[in-house]
Amino acid sequence: MKKVKRTLGMMALAATTVLTVSCKDVNKNEPAAPMSNEMHQESIDDKDDMAMNDNQDAKAEAILNDYFNLKDALVGDDNDKAKQLGATLASTLGSFDASSYSDSEQQELKDIMEDAIEHAEHISESDMAHQREHFKILSKDVTDMVAITGTEMKIYEQFCPMYNNNEGGAWLSMNEEIRNPYFGDKMLKCGKVQREIN
Amino acid sequence: MVENQVPATIKNRLQVSCYDCHSNNTDYPWYSKIQPAAWFLEDHIQEGKDELNFNEWATYSDRRKNSKLRSIISQIEEDKMPLDSYTLIHKDAILSDEYKRMIIDYMTALKDSLE
């Protein structure tokens, strides 16, 4: 009986060893496969941006596109979508390449990106009211970025004097027609064009 | 924020109400030695410091200071900070209306000076 027990014990031990080894093997092989998968997927997701850019660095236009998508989600009072798009914008901001600008511009752009990323990240995890608070400062960051980088796009800077207890809030849009991201459906058309860029 | 010559009353108030989570000078409480409270706490303090660390104030750009000041003001105005879970144990960290006003006014003036 004792012997049987011992044999069983040995077998269990052997089985465990085999399992451990095979787990290790799997682990060893794993990194290669999923990683290439991920990279493949990313390049598919980024196709639209890639088509616009000559390289992988995010240009001002890619940031503007993500910003406008986010703005539209806020206009549509869509909290979840704004969260998603905030995260997208944060990653585009993070890959911005400022190397072609002068030293002082690079410093300014670095400050802008750092600040904007933080706001975009907050937007990716907040309720609507909070998202709009951050969107206000994010809008200033993006506006300041455009002042340095310029853009091919025709952009309208718009302003609603009533946001945040009449403190007011500005934003950028590609359309002249007012669609208010700070109030959404509550006051969709509150605001006016303050400035035209290009 | 030191280089901005913060008035003593405000500085003391910030130290009592904010510095445990928003500076490198955390005054760890007795329950920080007990698991799982310690894990929870460490996580919490790290999150607080990532968000705002008064010890790193001087390294923030003016743009970033501006954003931080704006957030500090709105968090205090809306009574979101200091956290309820913190003031539950640290009664002395609760901000009276008078202190709230004082801090908000100070931060607003500082913010305007950066703009």
Strand portion of chain A = 5-15%
Distance between the termini of chain B: 16 Å
Supply the helix-strand structural class of chain B.
Answer: mainly alpha
State the helical fraction of chain B. Answer: 55-70%
What number of domains of chain A?
2
- Global geometry of chain B: globular
Tally of individual helices of chain A: 8
Mean pLDDT of chain A: 81
Output the keywords.
heterodimer, A: about 200 residues, mainly alpha, 3-stranded antiparallel β-sheet, 8 helices, 3 strands, globular, B: about 120 residues, 6 helices, about 0% strand
Walkthrough of the structure:
- The complex is a heterodimer of chains A (198) and B (115).
- Chain A is mainly alpha-helical.
- Chain A folds into two domains: 2-40; 58-197, no CATH class.
- Chain A has helices at residues 2-29, 32-45, 47-52, 60-75, 79-94, 103-123, 128-149, 163-166, and strands spanning 155-160, 169-173, 192-197.
- Chain A has a three-stranded antiparallel beta sheet with strand order 2-1-3.
- Chain A is globular and about 45 Å long.
- The model of chain A is unreliable at 7-56 (pLDDT under 50).
- Chain B is mainly α.
- Chain B has one domain.
- Chain B has helices at 8-17, 19-22, 37-51, 62-77, 84-87, 97-114.
- Chain B starts with 7 loop residues before the first helix and ends with a helix.
- The A-B interface holds A 111-112, 114-115, 118-119, 133, 137, 141 and B 61-64, 66-67, 70, 74.
